[in-house]
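Bench notes, bay 3.
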Amino acid sequence: MNRTVRVLKDTLKQFTIAFMVFLIITIVDAVVFWLYNSIFEPLFYASLICVAFLLVLFVMYFLINLRNDSNREHLKNTDEREWINNLEPKTLAEEDYCEMLKTVLKKFTEYDLTNETEKQNMLDYYTSWVHQIKTPISVMRLELKSNDTEENRVLLGELFRIERYVDMVLQYVRLDSNTNDLVIGEYPLDDIIRECIRKYASQFISAKVKLEYEGTDKEVITDRKWLSVIIEQLLSNAVKYAPEGKVEIKVTDDNKLIVEDNGIGIRPEDLPRVFEKGYTGNNGRLGMNSSGLGLYLSKKAADKIKVPISVESELSKGTKFTLDLNKRELLKD
């Protein structure tokens, strides 16, 4: 209804000049008839005929504008190339505007292609860089494991964190790229969780964090790699902010994966912003050595695989993250 009113107002604007010209002509004719003492009856009937003609013309233009508006509204939901090619200019000015739009679209397309090429080059570079840097990391790990000392255990922990930061670089670049690297399938959820736990086992031990997980026989339709990224980040946060505490992983009957710790918690004013890029909070949970990217990546990964993620927390009592793993259509776009 609003668009119909807008079309009506626009048509009235188009006819403003026509109505004004008609009014001026009528007034001039009336003055001339009066000066020559002519009979006004012919002028009256002629004016009525002109008014009727103008009204018919107005209704026709209104219906044409209404149809054109409906077509434009439909074209808005299509690809920009389609709607520009379907434009039908009726005046020289409209034709010029169409040509300008096509020029802008051409430049935008060229820029988009250049931007995509640069993004792909950057992704290729970081992918290569990650694989190359993991070689010296693996060598360092083997050397440190060959001599089990307290100092080497500390260094192994730091090396593990370095590797996690390296992985985060690649995850960050891939999340912001338009490449579709999803591999959707049905996987045993228990296998994914235990694989993440094994990866962080040494961190749990060194931080003296107790882990509780009873296992599950549920299957989940998802992308295994990105779900693992989310779980690993939640475990990383739990270890970091619940030292010498407890972390519990459980899967509910309604297919929700919960990672809960009894750590320092999150301030109420920080809670709505924990998934924001670069947000580090005020209570030290996301402290000075934090980049504020971990939970941001978790949220972006969760959005990528269509898994709702939520957080509950109470200061000094702990934090609970929940992933809703109920089966849903995963759009492969």
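Next record in the batch:
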Amino acid sequence: MTASNPPRDESTTLPDPGAHLDSTAHIMNRISSQLARQLSLVSLDGRRRPEPPPVPERPGRYPHALVVVAHGSRDPRALSTVSALLDKVRELRPTLPVHLGHIELNEPLLPDTLAALGDREAILVPLLLSRGYHIKRDIPEMAAESRVRARVAGALGPHPLLVEALYTRLVEAGWRTRMDEDTRRTSAVVLAAAGSRDPESKVDTSRTAHLLADRLGVPVIPAYATTAAPTVPDALRDLAARGRTRVAVASYFTAPGRFATECAQAAPWIASAPLGTHPAMARLLLHRYDQMVATPVTAAQELASA
């Protein structure tokens, strides 16, 4: 933050007779410097010399680009949601280069985004909520096939910022922030996620469910739209059998799509909207970026990127 200039009393301040000359001299010096730089790029035989290497960026500028890697969806709402989320990231950090790449289904595809970056440094942050094949294989392989000096961050979850977003979305859907003990004993939440065959994905989702349960004070059961068990309907039936009749479905999806819609339709009471453009999502993307920038590159990573 720069200090503001002290207020000036215009009625008592006299004009500086040398101000105009100083301003003119400053402009002429800038023009001369620019001309000298351009002339230095031309050799004696008239051919242009190669550009000198770039000067390291000043503090406050970012040598690593941020590439947010989304999965992709046939639902047009997904692309518009992700684009709006990236706009929020840019608002939080205006000088950071922010790019989008998709694993499939939507453009730009990640390989095309990386090709446009050339050989610069980039941090790839998956817009994915848990570990799985895409983070462990797909994204690193796409990065390795490009010229970009890329490092891949981990999944967004579990993290307290995700719990903040989930809680807000539930309250927006009608969840009571205060309830009596009788109501609490009959209430619960199903955390509806996409699902994966990777067992670590279930571990991550279960940890998020545990964090959300601590925040809400009621049971939170992770359930899945596909691939993994239990399914959302199975989790709802299990909770009903245990006397939990006031059950909300918390949408653990980054954007609208088929799975989010199907899970919401199964809700016996209320269903929250996907995490979408919640401010905590933009902050979490930047947090994962900052973590990777601050993490020293190992010798193995340098050999892999060479």
